[in-house]
Amino acid sequence: MTSSQGITLQNASVTLGGKVILSGLSLTLSEHRIGIIGRNGSGKTTLLRLLAGLIPPTTGSVTIDGLNPTDRKAILPRLGILFQNPDHQILFPTVAEELGFGLRQQGQTEAQAQRAVTTLLAAENRSHWAKALTHTLSQGQRHYLCLLSILLMQPATILLDEPFAGLDLPTQTRLARRLSAVPQRLITITHDPATVSACDRVLWLDQGGIRADGPPDTVLPAFTAEMARIGEHDADTDLAD
Ligand SMILES: Nc1ncnc2c1ncn2[C@@H]1O[C@H](COP(=O)(O)OP(=O)(O)OP(=O)(O)O)[C@@H](O)[C@H]1O
Question: Which residues form the ABC transporter domain (predicted)?
Answer without folding.
Answer: 7-232
